[in-house]
Design goal:
The chain has 379 residues and is of the alpha/beta class. The chain has 2 domains: 3-244, Type I PLP-dependent aspartate aminotransferase-like (Major domain) (Aspartate Aminotransferase, domain 2), CATH 3.40.640; 248-377, Aspartate Aminotransferase, domain 1. Helix content is 38%, strand content 15%. The protein has 14 helices and 12 strands. It has helices spanning 3-9, 52-65, 76-84, 101-113, 126-132, 155-164, 177-180, 215-228, 234-244, 247-266, 285-291, 306-315, 345-351, 367-377, and strands at residues 69-73, 92-96, 117-121, 137-143, 168-172, 190-194, 208-212, 271-275, 298-303, 320-321, 331-333, 357-361. The chain has a 7-stranded mixed beta sheet, sandwiched between helices. A 5-stranded mixed beta sheet has the order 8-9-12-11-10. Strand 5, helix 7 (177-180) and strand 6 (190-194) form a beta-alpha-beta unit. The chain starts with a helix and ends with a helix. The mean pLDDT is 96. The chain binds pyridoxal-5'-phosphate. Pyridoxal-5'-phosphate (PLP) is lined by residues 75-77, 100, 102, 143, 147, 172, 174, 194, 196, 206, 208.
């Protein structure tokens, strides 16, 4: 089945309600499940371990990412935190230096406290990755395009390196969703999602995913999943499942809008730089053309001054100044005080995350209305 169909119908393996024929997967709001008899199970025992609504969602996400198994978490951070439990004291992880701030906070505080060190680098530079590999290195963790600088890393080329050194290769695929990019097909071992974003798509629910293709890794994650208990609730699983039904339509429309907004920003005198991976002039464009089927709806741009940035944040009416991304509503974010506030100032400055940088998550409104709102706020 094609991705668009899987989004709407799930997979043949998705459990559905044979008794009633319900078209929408029911919300199985049950903490526990009755055993038919001693030693027998319906396959569902207790909702921390398995839940039918969540399973339908997990099967759908696994199919979309072409993975063997998907695990649905209460948030994207819960998925990352669970994955971090795979490592032991003394291990090292190589990660993109441009990464969602919450993941940096987790690596630099919780993982570090647990004896796991992170080596940050520009993962678009393959030599930089290779030069950091030591006998203690266990994994490479990337975001592509990255948050918020839209840097692009070559998944297939990094996979060659991780395979050669027996490292776990993890890709955070939140920005493009499986509709535009399927990292497991390109050689990654695990995919992370903040399902809160494009997958759920409506800025109304939190969720997270870990998708893997290897049965042995899957078993380790299943153990962590049932032990740590950061599972997605049946209702939030249902909301995410419902959101995914329109993933294809939303991604296409959001991308179309993003191109129109880029055009406006590129022509505005108060905008000094536009960062969007769909611009042929962008550094990662060639790799994007090779490894994705679309460019997504995330745009960062640099204004001429902090005053202009503040004016935009205070002046937009339609566009909400709010954290998060990927939903139907266009949002504008100030990474320096929001998503990346916990990254040390010197690091932020070095990476270009300053008081002139804004990030837009383009929604599905009429593009002209979004442009008019920005234009008005910039007057
Ligand atoms: C790229 C990326 N990964 C992971 C996360 C964490 O997801 P959540 O907010 O669902 O915990 C976010 C959140 O903004 C993100 O942008």
């Amino acid at each position: 089945m094609k991705k668009e169909t899987v989004c709407v119908h799930g997979t043949d393996e998705s459990p559905f309600d044979e008794r009633t024929g319900a078209v929408s997967v029911p919300i199985y709001q049950s903490a526990t499940f009755r055993h038919p008899s001693l030693g027998k199970s319906t396959g569902f025992d207790y909702s921390r371990m398995q839940n039918p609504t969540r399973l339908a969602l997990e099967k759908t996400v696994a199919a979309l990412e072409n993975g063997a198994e998907a695990f649905a978490y209460s948030t994207g951070m819960a998925a990352v935190a669970s994955l971090a439990e795979l490592f032991s004291p003394g291990d090292r992880i190589i990660a993109s230096s441009d990464l969602y701030g919450g993941v940096i906070r987790l690596f630099d505080n919780i993982s570090k406290k647990n004896g796991v060190a992170t080596d940050y680098t520009d993962t678009s530079d393959l030599t930089a990755i290779e030069s950091l590999i030591t006998k203690d290195t266990k994994a490479v963790f990337i975001e592509t395009p990255s948050n918020p600088m839209m840097e692009v890393s070559d998944i297939a080329e990094i996979a060659k390196i991780t395979r050669a050194h027996n490292l776990l290769f993890i890709v955070d695929n939140t920005f493009l969703s499986p509709y535009f990019q399927q990292p497991l097909n390109l050689g990654a071992d695990a995919v992370i999602h903040s399902g809160t974003k494009f997958l759920a798509g409506h800025n109304d629910t939190l969720s997270g995913f870990l998708v893997v293709k290897d049965a042995c890794l899957s078993e380790k994650i299943r153990f962590l999943y049932k032990t740590v208990g950061a599972c997605l609730s049946p209702f939030d699983a249902w909301l995410t499942l419902r959101g995914i039904k329109t993933l294809a339509l939303r991604m296409e429309k959001q991308e179309r809008n993003a191109f129109k907004i880029c055009e406006f920003l590129l022509g505005h005198k108060k905008v000094k730089k536009v960062l969007y991976s769909g611009l042929p002039s962008s550094k990662g464009y060639g790799i994007m053309k090779k490894q994705t089927t679309g460019f997504g709806a995330m745009i960062s741009f640099k204004t001429d001054s902090a005053k202009t940035a503040e004016k935009i944040l205070a002046g937009t009416r339609l566009i909400a100044f709010a954290e998060s991304l990927g939903g139907v509503e266009t949002l504008i974010t100030y990474p320096t005080v929001q998503t990346h506030a916990d990254v040390p100032v010197s690091e932020r400055e070095k990476r270009g995350i300053n008081d002139r940088l804004l990030r837009l998550s383009v929604g599905i409104e009429d593009a002209d209305d979004i442009v008019a709102d920005l234009e008005n706020a910039m007057k």
